[in-house]
Amino acid sequence: MYGSNMLVNCSGCHTPLQLPPGATSIRCALCHAVTHIADPRALPHQPHSSTHGPPPPLPNVAPSPYNHAPPGPPPNAHGRKKAVVVGISYKYSRHELKGCINDAKCMKYLLMNKFNFPESSIIMLTEEEDPRGPKFPNKHNMRMAMFWLVQGCQPGDSLVFHYSGHGSQQRNYSGDEADGYDETLCPLDFETQGMIVDDEINATIVRPLPPGVRLHALIDACHSGTVLDLPFLCRMDRSGRYVWEDHRPRSGTWKGSAGGEALSKITSTGAMTFCFIQAIERGHGTTYGSILNAMRTAIRNVGNDGDVIGGGVVTSLLSMLLTGGSGIGGLRQEPQLTACEPFDVYTKPFYL
């Protein structure tokens, strides 16, 4: 019997699956395909190394639907950078939104040019992609992209999940939501395939995070609430004073990570992308507190006609957001921050 679990890709839908010790096959709960695995005891011996090298190739593993996973040598002391960016406009439907695809393009540009994310390590899902390909924003592809984001993450890695589109809520009957509702994201095919519930998002991209990995989720959606299901929520008043609220479920279910950091910035205004990028572009990205304050100020300074009335320099990226129709009007709720553990937002440095 071999002792440690293996991660293999389903031979049918490519979902990463955890192979129990001793097993030589596993059935996928999503597509029900059976993936057969060669006995790892028959593999050549792999010498142990004190450095963090790439794991040996898995036997009989189906190829990932994303053929542009981050290339190059194993992670260095600063780790790898990976991102999933989703923008859904629901075009030609009664749910159509303006500016979401443009938000995704601007976020990708920011990650590449401000935070040095390699283009090959960013997966962007929009309706401009091939409807039959893995980057079209349907439910299956969004699930696969989230699996890809955390797969193989190691200490020092920086992960980003950005979503611009519809969010919703549905009644929770398990007792693990403080307000009695699950928050959801709405993939393009949500009316036929269903929404992606916060419990699944938490289980997919939060709970697997090992120590030393940092995940930032930027959610620009209506009714998104605490869509990553993180245990603590930071509320800040107009003077900049803040308090952490304990949102741990009464059931005792742990919704944090396996030691890594997960932080989520959320608005239900359709303006998060604009305000976040404006805060970074204008030099307010030193701490989480400075970003939250700058985003709050931006929201207060945006009129319902979509004009920026706060003044200041409008960079080419902010101009791209404005001219691209990003939703920055009709603002109602200020940004929130959620995390696995409370911390001092004015001393903790922000970085991606």
UniProtKB/TrEMBL annotation:
Q: Where is the Peptidase C14 caspase domain?
A: 80-338
Q: Where is the signal peptide?
A: none
Pro residues bias locations:
53-76
Annotated Zinc finger LSD1-type domain residues = 10-34
Top-level lineage group:
Eukaryota
Pfam families per the record? Answer: Peptidase_C14, zf-LSD1
Outline the segment boundaries, as ranges, of region: Disordered: 42-80
Q: Which InterPro entries match?
A: Metacaspase, Pept_C14_caspase, Znf_LSD1
Family the UniProt entry places it in: Belongs to the peptidase C14B family.
Q: What is this protein called?
A: Metacaspase-1
Q: Which organism is it from?
A: Stylosanthes scabra
